[in-house]
């Protein structure tokens, strides 16, 4: 049975998302990664005309597969105000949010197979009362996740062919992240990651590495005791549960090629510890994905890029990678559950 198409959100219409959606369709239209954009039809048709591409067509998700090889399928989400590249409009914030909500709703209903989110401007949305730190937490809220903002909230993975990292703390300042760390939080992150590696990435026996916090992983307590008091107990518990887990690993030596060959994903304790190595190894090919949800959700690993929006300079590599990864994850999850 043919899987339903992926749902791609609008993102901020003044950013590079709409153009990248069309460029991604151009790259994928002859492959088996069907998707439907939840976006403003007039804006996409204007961009398609400028790029000399076929005019996108309005349809429902059920018709997207029939259309995809000829034109970008679109489920229209009208903008109250025409989008101007590089100039975000607060008046369009409600449409940005509505696009995400519709994509999640249709995926929960089985009409679409997963959600790929284009970049949003959180500053613009905050002005309109948006109360979530980002996509990760908002999508978790929309899927009725039990706790979207605590130690048992959603997990953020940054994935590239070279490396996958998962964060124990996400969008917190460094001082706040240190306060939020605990053995419980590390255990929850590791367990969700191991389950996702099996179900969504097709790994029967996943191997996990858990990073230390301090220089040289604390050097036996001489440079900090977090490894002894928080990380090591989590590692011991996971091993007792039968998992293949290494750690606490010194953060400065766990990301070179030889070390990466010994694990499938790394649990990192704070934002930059996990994102810097992936972005250094593959800046244009990284994908942000949310683990532990009832739906698949991925996103390109870049922002709105207002400074280059509408200038034809944006690269679609990360969005294409996000669509491909979501498609693979959906296929793996379907196989695991049948």
Automatic annotation (TrEMBL):
Q: Which UniProt keywords apply?
A: Cobalt, Cytoplasm, Magnesium, Metal-binding, NAD, NADP, Oxidoreductase, Pyridoxine biosynthesis, Zinc
Gene Ontology BP terms: pyridoxal phosphate biosynthetic process; pyridoxine biosynthetic process
Which reaction is catalysed here? 4-(phosphooxy)-L-threonine + NAD(+) = 3-amino-2-oxopropyl phosphate + CO2 + NADH
Q: Which superkingdom heads the taxonomic lineage of this protein's source?
A: Bacteria
Which residues does the annotation say bind substrate? 135-136, 279, 288, 297
Further comment:
The active site is located at the dimer interface.
**HAMAP family, per the entry:** PdxA (MF_00536)
**What's its job?**
Catalyzes the NAD(P)-dependent oxidation of 4-(phosphooxy)-L-threonine (HTP) into 2-amino-3-oxo-4-(phosphooxy)butyric acid which spontaneously decarboxylates to form 3-amino-2-oxopropyl phosphate (AHAP).
Q: What's the name of the protein? A: 4-hydroxythreonine-4-phosphate dehydrogenase
Provide the taxonomic classification.
Answer: Bacteria, Pseudomonadati, Pseudomonadota, Alphaproteobacteria, Maricaulales
